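Quick one, tokens below. Sequence please?
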């Protein structure tokens, strides 16, 4: 995925596709890739050199988007910002793909 420059800190986002929440990673994915429904996604923010993103002093939010026709028909459009799920682990977020897109 792309590297962005934020406040003089380069951040790289990695995406992992999983069959189940606690299963093995099936594949990596990039922004814009079409993903199958019924899969688990893990997003990780790391430094440009691959080290974990610092947990203190930053508020990490994720923008997860699905504007596919199937999501629209199910009234499941997404595009908002979400905080990382676990306290103290600001550089990670998990989501499930409910619709193709």
């Amino acid at each position: 995925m792309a590297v962005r420059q934020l406040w003089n800190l380069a951040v790289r986002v990695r995406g992992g596709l999983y069959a189940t929440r606690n299963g093995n990673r099936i594949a990596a994915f990039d922004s814009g890739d079409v993903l199958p429904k019924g899969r688990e996604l893990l997003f990780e923010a790391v430094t440009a050199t691959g080290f974990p993103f610092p947990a203190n002093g930053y508020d990490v939010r994720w923008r997860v988007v699905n504007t596919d026709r199937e999501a629209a028909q199910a009234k499941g459009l997404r595009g908002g910002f979400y905080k990382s799920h676990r306290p103290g682990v600001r550089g990670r977020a998990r989501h499930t793909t409910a619709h193709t897109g």
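Residues 69-73 form the longest helix (5 residues). The radius of gyration is 14 Å.
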